[in-house]
Specification:
5-stranded parallel β-sheet, 25% strand, GMP Synthetase, Chain A, domain 3, binds xanthosine-5'-monophosphate, 15 helices
Length: 512
């Protein structure tokens, strides 16, 4: 088992950020619900425990409380914000409603030496976000650092290796917070730097081999980051026992199907079953303009095509999926926890429940950035590992109105120009998504001496952390100019280009 730090989640919007910061220190971390029994935590043999922040007040009725035995397991504990208040509450301190809410940037003055602040200056910039504060120290604790509003901004009990921070070391607004976290995991918990994707490959390959044995595995390969990395990893473990099914739904970007066949079929020498199903999809989409209907039709057609493909692939015991850690973390259902509201918006499971497979999900404990590192470790090219997200229903949700072969051609050509220019000008990997959209609007233009009456292409480029909110990207005007003139000159059927300057919310990233 990996050396690990357990994070008890009290509903903070930053809990996953804490977990990622720890992993960036090459130490494995696991997020558990705040009320996970101490016995269960003990079974994982963690090297330390972090109590996350949270929106509640410790004295409020129904506020989340841990199993109090967690504090007497003899393990190092770091309470962050609400976590500090939990320490105070359970260990004999007192918490008061702060007379002044402390929110935003502040300065922390370190008054006493502490292993948490090893190598840090006497004052650092920190990020606060709390209303309540500790006003009486718990037994055995001493104050270490203060802020303008709090005498007990950092407290410690060195004997029991328990620490509390009023500020958030995990967020970027605490520029040296990373060092505080490193000090906790390396010097207080004694973790080594064992969690690396190089080590994970070996470990995951072993686990996959052991679990799969002589059985067969099927994986739906979309060409996106997650399914590609899952395919490469499983293939490394069991080679020809894995069959990847790639469905060409006719709604893919230019050269995409060939790229997948070349990379996985040829370079990796995987057993790749290519399903050419464009006409099935296009027939069903004929005349359909309603976005939701389009999505439903594509979803159900995909299931049919995939089921038939699986039959042809032969009997398999396992179905592999590129599920990631954020999809499996249970959110804490308390008011004020945004993570409780934002939950799987798109990642529709897809396949019907009556299909009898065991799921193989080798990326289930990884964050997206780790999946990319893993992909690099497995030898996947940058274009795959760092590619922008692409929606399951493909270009159909970027063609407003009727989806026909001709309109797909126009969009594909325009989109290829957007991608090419974004890459050539070093913008592609800097943004979340950049693509073309084909509008149902035709307008008048002149080409040479001829009057034209053709379609309009919209260009959309957004930056985002997770797709939930997004800002439009202020691309340089010479790049926009190049994209526009190339589309108008090179793509038959389009004579006008617009730029989408809406953010999400209220707009969405995709147009349908
Ligand atoms: P919206 O348009 O809702 O998109 O702002 C947010 C993010 O999700 C992607 N997206 C999808 N991904 N299947 C997917 O796997 C889908 O049906 C789907 N629809 C939208 C979108 O590209 C953006 O990154």
């Amino acid at each position: 088992m990996n050396e690990q730090i357990v994070i008890l989640d009290f509903g903070s919007q930053y809990t996953q950020v804490i977990a990622r910061r720890i992993r960036e220190c090459s130490v494995y971390s696991t997020i558990l619900r705040y009320d996970t029994p101490a016995k269960e935590i003990q079974r994982l043999a963690p090297k330390g425990i972090i109590l996350s922040g949270g929106p509640a007040s410790v004295y409020a009725e129904g506020s989340p409380k841990p199993d109090r035995r967690v504090l007497s397991l003899g393990l190092p504990v770091l309470g962050i914000c609400y976590g500090l208040q939990i320490l105070g509450h359970f260990l004999g301190g007192r918490i008061d409603r702060g007379l002044q809410r402390e929110f935003g940037k502040g300065t922390l003055w370190v008054k006493k030496s502490s292993p948490l602040f090893r190598g840090l200056p006497k004052s650092i910039q920190v990020w606060n976000s709390h209303g309540d504060k500790l006003t009486k120290l718990p037994k055995g604790f001493e104050p270490i650092a203060v802020t303008e509003n709090s005498d007990f901004a950092v407290v410690q009990d060195l004997k029991r290796h328990q620490f509390g921070l009023q500020f958030h070391p995990e967020v970027v607004h605490t520029p040296q917070g990373r060092k505080v976290i490193e000090n906790f995991v390396y010097h207080i918990c004694g973790c080594g730097k064992e969690w690396t994707m190089r080590n994970y490959v070996g470990q995951a390959v072993e686990e996959i081999r052991e679990r799969v044995g002589e059985e067969k595995v099927i994986l739906g390969l979309s060409g996106g980051v997650d399914s590609s990395v899952a395919a490469a990893l499983i293939h490394k473990a069991i080679e020809k026992q894995l069959t990847c099914i790639f469905v060409n739904n006719g709604l893919l970007r230019a050269r995409e199907a060939d790229a997948v066949r070349n990379l996985f079929g040829r370079n990796f020498d995987m057993r790749l079953q290519y399903e050419s199903a464009a006409s099935d999809f296009l027939k069903k989409l004929k005349g359909v303009t309603n976005p939701e209907r389009k999505r439903k039709i594509i979803g159900s057609t995909f299931i049919k095509v995939f089921q038939a493909a699986m039959k042809r692939a032969g009997k398999a015991k396992f179905l592999a999926q590129g599920t990631l850690y954020p999809d499996v973390i249970e959110s804490v259902p308390i008011a004020g926890n945004p993570a409780a509201l934002i939950k799987s918006h798109h990642n529709v499971g897809g396949l019907p429940k009556n299909m009898k497979f065991e799921l193989l999900e080798p990326l289930k404990c990884l964050f997206k950035d780790e999946v990319r590192l893993l992909g690099e470790e497995l030898g996947l090219p940058k274009e795959v590992v760092h590619r922008q997200p692409f929606p399951g229903p493909g270009l159909a949700v970027r063609i407003l109105g009727d989806v026909t072969r001709e309109r797909l051609r126009i969009l594909r050509e325009a989109d290829a120009i957007v991608i090419e220019e974004m890459k050539a000008n070093d913008w592609y990997y800097k943004v979340w998504q950049s693509f073309a959209v084909l509008l149902p609007v035709r307008s008048v233009g002149v080409m040479g001496d001829e009057r034209t009456y053709e379609y309009t292409v919209a260009v959309r480029a957004v930056e985002s952390k997770d797709g939930m909110t997004a800002d439009w990207v202020k691309l340089p005007s010479d790049l926009l100019e190049r994209i526009s003139s190339r589309i108008i000159n090179e793509v038959g059927g389009a004579n006008r280009v617009c730029l989408d300057i809406s953010s999400k919310p209220p707009a969405t990233i995709e147009w349908e």
